[in-house]
Design goal:
- The chain has 119 residues and is mainly β.
- Helix content is 0%, strand content 61%.
- It contains no helices and 11 strands.
- Strand 9 and strand 10 form a beta hairpin.
Length: 119
């Protein structure tokens, strides 16, 4: 069973930084895209950033300039560097991996890591 394990969440003051990491294990397919999503209390899950195996990134417009996504294909890991954090960045951050195995599209999520930004 594929596993995605996030780490790096925690409590930080506004203006601070955190780096989230996600490691995918038991991978039996080529992961085309890895990414981060977040869900704040009472809100729907939203895209933070994605990155393809070729390094093409997609970052939510509101986060550009503060967040950076990176990936290590050899290790099946993806990281999210978050700078200048704001209280509104408080959310559970989820890692996602999407790939194909034959004609089947595979989609996996981690359990999430909580980021709390205090004012």
């Amino acid at each position: 069973q594929v596993q995605l394990v996030e780490s790096g969440g925690g409590l930080v003051q506004a203006g601070g930084s955190l780096r989230l990491s996600c490691a995918a294990s038991r991978i039996t397919f080529n992961i085309a895209t890895m990414g981060w999503y977040r869900q704040a209390p009472g809100k729907e899950r939203e895209l933070v950033a994605t990155i393809t195996s070729g390094g093409t990134t997609n970052l939510a417009d509101s986060l550009k300039g503060r967040f950076t996504i990176s990936r290590d294909n050899a290790k099946n890991t993806v990281s999210l560097q978050m700078n200048s954090l704001k209280p509104e960045d408080t959310a559970v951050y989820y890692c996602r991996a999407v790939g194909r195995l034959g004609v089947q599209t595979l989609n996996y999520w981690g359990k999430g890591t909580l980021v709390t930004v205090s004012s």
